[in-house]
Amino acid sequence: MQTTLAFVALLLPLTLSPGPVNIALAAAGMSGGFRPALPFYAGLFISAVAIAVAGGMGLNELFLAQPVIYQVLRYAGIAYIVYLAVKLIRAKSNVSGSAGGAYRFHDGLLLTALNPKYYVVVTVVYSQFLKPGQNTLWIVMLGLSAIVAFSQGAWLVAGASLRPLLKSERALRIQSVTFGVLLLAVAAYMLIEDV
Length: 195
Prior knowledge:
- The chain is an all-alpha fold.
- It is built from nine helices and no strands.
């Protein structure tokens, strides 16, 4: 029971904190609504599960042994976050519910795959909750996946629930630019702080 509480206490702040994935999810929900953002959400989640599985099978050891691979991933991730920010800033949203620059399934796959923060989260979780000689890998992966699904879903629902407040083209445009600028700020922080 204590291990489960520690697991949840560690993961909730890590997965609920604002970062590129959560900001993009909220923006997708606000720009286009809940249903149109589901493919993006699915891409994010599938990529997260794939990374959790790969991490359990040794990907993290590869990053430790070959730091240059991690650095390439880090810079590619920052570049992709900038691309998504620009895409959001330039998106043409309309009040009827469609967003011209809406994120798609492949955007979700790539955003998580190129997000170095998620690899760090997987490494931290595995280093704390996988015990040598115990067969806990699948339990930890399932728990991690469930908490990620919950956290990402919460950001999507929060963004979609705020959508009715955006009743004009101007309000939607301000929202898109604001979230795009937030993504640019996250990318800058990741670059400066070596996250």
